[in-house]
Amino acid sequence: MDLRGKKVLVTGGNSFLGKSLVPLLRKKEAEIFTFSSMEYDLRKEHEVEKLFLDATPDVVMHLAVDCGGFEYKENNKGKMFYNNIMADTLVQEYSMRNNVEKFVGIGTSASYPEFASSPLNENDLWEGQPEESNHSYGLVKRMMIIQSQAYRDQYGFNSIHLIPVNLYGPNFSTTPKDIRFIPILLRKFVDGKENREREVELSGTRNASREFLYVEDCAEGIIKATELYDKPSPVNLGCGEDIPMGELAEKVKKVVGYAGKIIWRGESSNQTPPRVLDISRAEMEFGFKAKTSLEKGLTKTLEWYLENYEGFKGK
Prior knowledge:
single chain; 315 residues; 6-stranded parallel β-sheet; globular; UDP-galactose 4-epimerase, domain 1; Rossmann fold; 11 helices; 2 domains
């Protein structure tokens, strides 16, 4: 698919990921339609119907999601289930009804079973239940795959599903709902440096490990998949390497230039197992491979944070 001149509807175009994806679509000379949640409520069928009448898309990239950090997910399981199942189902249904050329659904690595062995292959998705804090959210995103494949079988609907791992990079949200580990580290070390603190306290355990993908790399992966991939099987997007939280904290500390000590306080309640993705399918099918090293990505993220730092104070 050549995206030049295509009308591309991007739900969640103003999100963390959307802010990296939309500029790449502009470089491809696509006609982009984005909107705010105040303009169209994706949980309501009549508003989704109006959205498609207004946008008349050739391609739909469905990024919109109700999610957040561990605390938000723990306290909003029912709300997240309803908001996501309604939006995912309606957006894909109206994409089919309006004969869009391609639907690109964005899922989550939280869909993987709690006890699946790393690296997580796409075929492992159905080998068990997601871990407890991600259970309803992870299953909802699996349902987007089921809907996609069912519509492909019955209607010949061209729909693909991509599964990104944890994202980081510029334009991250600092609201309590959305805040994630790397932004937390940046804020703590920047504040510690500015205030000349002798030590910074971090909660959790330094031995827990996670995989992180730079957000602009993820956006490039979505573009490549849209252009080159047309199969029903979901595809992981990641870097294929994890890092212990203690090592990550030291890297962020070094990038920031903070000279004090790190004090780890207790165990985090979020003890989910490692989520390292098998990324071979993405490379084989559409030539995607993450290109931004963690050090370079952290440096770019810090630069963006410092440029916007004054606006974050007091949040």
